[in-house]
Amino acid sequence: MIKGIGIDLIELDRIAESLHKGDRLAKRVLTDKELDIFYSLPTDTRRVEFLAGRFAAKEAFAKATGAGIGKLSFHDMEVLPQQSGAPSFHAPGYSHDKIFISITHSRDYAAAQIVIEADNDMHN
Fold first, then answer.
1. What residues bind Mg(2+), as annotated (predicted)?
2. Would the annotation count 117 as a binding residue?
3. CATH number of residue 74's parent domain
4. Model confidence over 5-46: pLDDT tens digits?
5. With left for phi above 0 and alpha for psi between -120 and 50, is residue 83 left, alpha or beta?
């Protein structure tokens, strides 16, 4: 059973502007593990895409839960790569649910979609 669906779109220029001023936004949005990946990326362009994708994913998750950012902290949510490179989403209180995530980038935007599916075993 689907518990929630969320989507978010963000302009890469907004993220690039913020990063030009410093890494305050990155530290506000990214967990320590995500920051390690962020700082290891080879170019500013790739860092902008990474941060924008994580920002959009966390906003999409907050929308899918109905809680919104404010009740959920950015640091309560984490998007890490699987061995295949595909993203996986982790959030406390949702370990029994399946969380599907998709992140995409274009030249100007990053977008993310989240689908939360209840674990059927928990409801039978």
1. 8, 59
2. no
3. 3.90.470.20
4. 999 999 999 999 999 999 999 999 999 999 999 999 999 999
5. alpha
